[in-house]
Specification:
Length: 260
């Protein structure tokens, strides 16, 4: 008794490799259309989130100087957004062209991003203070979480500033956000907080921690200074951007601080 098994063999379809450059990334020039890339990437993120999308027809792009030719395998491997754009029947699937808005980043910033994710260059790639902002923007927009976390680790080692705090708020980096809020609140050099004027909730976080730091500093200084014969402390106290120069009953101030 012989059993013959027949297996259907599907034809082998050549696949792109990490070294092949089968996708063109086109970058918006200054003064371009505000909706240059919004619809395509927006649809892709809806697909990644599992939500239905209404297909939008986007005209084929004219070839230009602001282009990069890269591997769809690399893009799809690291980014669910790129994968959706290139494999979900969207226009990019057939055209093999992806438009990138200037609000996301520049061609040079994409070069730094792609260098970090391509297996051909990732080992030699270096993330620095000069390129981390662009890499972060691309990794956040296209949901490359592992690279975004690496950006966060680099930023944690860089000097704090109000601009860095806004950046941490924008990209949802909790560790960096907490570090910058604490550092700004305790900075005795009166840091420039003008970058926070359009972010009231962020400014409030800094103000609250600054107030708490001020209270602790006042307690410490009052405890270290002897009161005069009338029971008043009359020295000028400077804490961060604040200073106090009035005679205050020590017992009353200590009570108020305790209540706060």
């Amino acid at each position: 008794f012989k059993l013959h098994c027949l297996f259907a063999v599907e034809p082998v379809v050549p696949m792109a490799s990490a070294s092949s450059r089968d996708v063109t990334i086109e970058f918006e020039a200054a003064g371009g259309d505000d909706e240059f890339e919004t619809k395509a990437a927006g649809e892709a993120r809806e697909l990644v989130a599992g939500r239905p999308v209404k297909r939008a027809k986007i005209g084929a792009a004219e070839p230009g100087a602001n282009e990069r030719h890269v591997s769809s395998v690399v893009l799809g491997m690291v980014s669910p957004v790129f994968e959706a754009m290139l494999s979900s029947g969207m226009l990019e699937t057939a055209s093999r062209r992806i438009k990138v808005s200037r609000d996301v980043g520049t061609a040079r910033q994409f070069d730094d991003f792609y260098e970090c994710v391509s297996p051909l260059t990732a080992r030699a790639a270096r993330m620095t203070e000069e390129n981390v902002d662009g890499i972060l923007a691309f990794s956040d927009y296209y949901q490359v979480e592992s690279l975004k976390q690496e950006c966060n680790r680099v930023l944690l080692e860089l000097p704090h500033s109000a601009a860095r705090l806004v950046q941490a708020h924008k990209y949802g980096m909790f560790d960096q956000y907490s570090r910058c809020v604490k550092a700004l609140a305790e900075d005795a050099s009166q840091p420039d907080l003008s970058a926070l004027q359009h972010y009231p909730s962020v400014l409030l976080d800094v103000a609250r921690l600054m107030q708490a730091h001020l209270a602790e500093e006042l307690k410490r200084r009052l405890a270290s200074e002897p009161a005069n014969q009338s029971g008043f402390s009359a020295s000028r106290l400077t804490v961060g951007p604040f200073f106090f120069e009035r005679q205050t009953p020590r017992s009353l101030l200590s009570t108020n601080l305790h209540r706060s």
